[in-house]
Amino acid sequence: MFAELLSTYGRSLDLSNAVAVAAAVASALFVFYFRLRRATDLHSVGILVFDSRDDDNGIVATLERAHQLHPDTPFALAVPGQQLVVLPVSEIETVKALPEDQLSIKKHHYNQFLGEHSYMGTKADEFDDAMRNALVRNTPMVLRAFVAEIGYATRVTIGDNLPTWTKITPKAAMARMATVLSGRSFVGLPLSRDEEWIDATVGFTGDVSRAWMKLRFIPHPLRPFVAPFFSEVRSLEARKALITRKLGVLLREREKKRDRDGPAGSGAAGGELLDWLRDQYSSGQPSVKELTRDQLLATFASIYNLTNALTYMVFDLASHPEFVEELRAELHDVLGQDGVIDKRTIMHLRKLDSFVRESQRLRPTSLVNIPRIVTSPKGLRLTTGHTIPPGFLVMVRAQPINLSPKLYPEPEKFDAFRFSRMREQPGQEMKVQHTSTGNDNINFGHGIWACPGRFFASAQIKVVAAHLIRNFDMRLTPGEKKPVPQYGGLAIFPDAVAQVELRSRTP
User: Fold this and answer.
1) Which of 112, 290, 386, 479 has its CA 20 to 30 A from that of 43?
2) Which of 2-6, 160-164, 474-478 comes out lowest in average pLDDT?
């Protein structure tokens, strides 16, 4: 425990971090005692605890070893800062529909994503309603915003005139791509193109992740006293203040326009998330703080996952040129010469949908999914006969599904049109789509808390993929291999410095 703390904080030990280290070391005994007590709780109900060191893919090997020993029963995994119970795939049906007072996804998000700073996991009923209802209902409007912005987004992130092979860094380019496109839907022009706004929203997501990597060692009761000493938390709060200020200006301008032109001229039907969020408040006049919270929730939920998904998609296109011409042919056949995706044509891009789902299958965002904290005082009763005590984090391992030879022949192979072929079978036409969830796909979660933003994400990924496929040739740098994913705890990240080469082409 002490070694983990020092390795985390000792690399950049300024005065602020020195104070943080002192608090962290003071809490180490608390954490050590807590871990021993929790391990005892699990042993008492017949669940083995596997320890892991969070470096050099150690957690990946530990997770695999534990699963090989216990493929059909739960086991616990001790990682720095937390201890979780990994459930077998058979328990998806058990957990998928349980309410918050029995299994809580919000408590997990609050703990995992520093809810006291990021708002993740906090009470936000209006935001939840907007995501589950307005966003899904207005996906065609969101799609139009993406299509309208994709040319500009490409120009400022990649460039639109690359006559020769040009190296780009997909992770950095796709982070800005996702921010610009999402911003067009979330807040609209001109704020979505404001460089300070873009930098703040991209940086906010990164700061949350970096802050958690350090604060995960600190017991929750001590975090409010320790967190202000970390540069990542100070940066996060500064970005939040900038976003609040700019959002306040935008809201005042919108109110003036609404007063002047009336509701019809206010832009409420323009497909921007702020308008839908505003409509969820019974007062009709949410505060700037409330809408900032909602905006940051949308930002964190979308930018982090979209950046990773778009980056993997670029790696896959550059690594598998054998599929690109067939994708181009589908785009031409379905979209015609203008190449515009709309609510009708997107449903017919089956090969593109299959490509995107295959990319996600082999490169999900996490080794586990369906995260929940047991909130029922009686614990969580499993079909295996085990009862998980209240307070524990439970998850389902995703890889046994994603790499199941029973579900997917040659599961390690990237087969871009695997799912489009499945949909050619009678009765399967509407199944195994990118946004479909089920016991065979938990990469978007499953059940009552399946990701409501998956339709938003899928639409954006397809717009970006279609634009790149039509307008660029892509390849790996000669002599280089396909970038491999990186691991941080249970999370899976695309290589942040890997590069590929692009060259403009005429559609």
Assistant:
1) 112
2) 2-6
What does the mean pLDDT of the chain come to? Answer: 87
Alpha carbon separation from 50 to 64, 69, 83, 134, 196 (Å, rounded): 11, 11, 10, 43, 45
Q: Which pLDDT band holds residue 26 (cuts at 50, 70, 90)? A: low
State the Cα angle at 112 between 17 and 70, rounded to 5°: 120
Question: Which residues are annotated binding-site positions for heme?
Answer: 451
Q: Which CATH class is domain 2-504?
A: mainly alpha
CA distance 451 to 471: 31
- Which residues carry a binding-site annotation? 451
Q: What is the pLDDT of residues 37-66, one digit of tens each?
A: 455 577 667 788 887 664 455 788 888 889
Q: What's the pTM?
A: 0.90
Domain edges within the chain: 2-504
Residue 131, number of CB atoms within 10 A of its CB: 23
Q: What is the DSSP letter of 208?
A: H
Q: Are strands 500-504 and 166-168 parallel, antiparallel or unpaired?
A: antiparallel
Cis amide linkage into residue 190, ω under 30° from 0: yes
In angstroms, the CA 420 to CA 406 distance is 18
